[in-house]
Amino acid sequence: QVQLVESGGGLVQPGGSLRLSCAASGNIFRLNRMGWYRQAPGKERELVAVITSGNNRNYADAVKGRVTISRDDAKNTVLLQMNSLKPEDTAVYYCNADVSNGLGVRRTYWGQGTQVTVSS
Question: CA-to-CA distance for 40 and 106, rounded, in angstroms?
Fold first, then answer.
């Protein structure tokens, strides 16, 4: 089993910044694609940003230019730096990881989510 634990959410004013962190632990042989998703009240979960094991990045149009995803494979961590935050960024942010366990098995795991609220 693999656990993903997010941290770094909170309340921030419009225009502010937050950095989300997600630490993976457990039966990990290799972390493949990792990403961040978000879900606002009454809306479906949507992709925010993903990063591959080769450090290729992809961002949702709504956050391009304001968000940077990065990973630290030595610490099994993925980070999401969010700048110029807007009220519409308010959501629960979820970490996602595609993990290989060394026996040829790949599974996708989700974190429990961290609340981000952008409000004055």
Answer: 29
Neighbours of 57 (CB within 10 A): 14
The terminus-to-terminus CA distance of the chain in angstroms comes to: 40
pLDDT of the residue at 104? 82
- Cα 22 from Cα 116, distance rounded (Å): 14
The span from the CA of 99 to the CA of 31, in Å, is: 5
Enumerate the β-bridge partners of residue 42: none
DSSP code of residue 43:
S
Cα 34 to Cα 9, 10, 17, 31, distances in angstroms: 18, 22, 21, 7
Q: Do strands 30-39 and 91-100 pair parallel, antiparallel, or not at all (unpaired)?
A: antiparallel
The per-residue pLDDT for range 59-118, each reduced to its tens digit, is 999 999 999 999 999 999 999 999 999 999 999 999 999 999 888 899 999 999 999 999
Q: What was the pLDDT predicted at 103?
A: 87
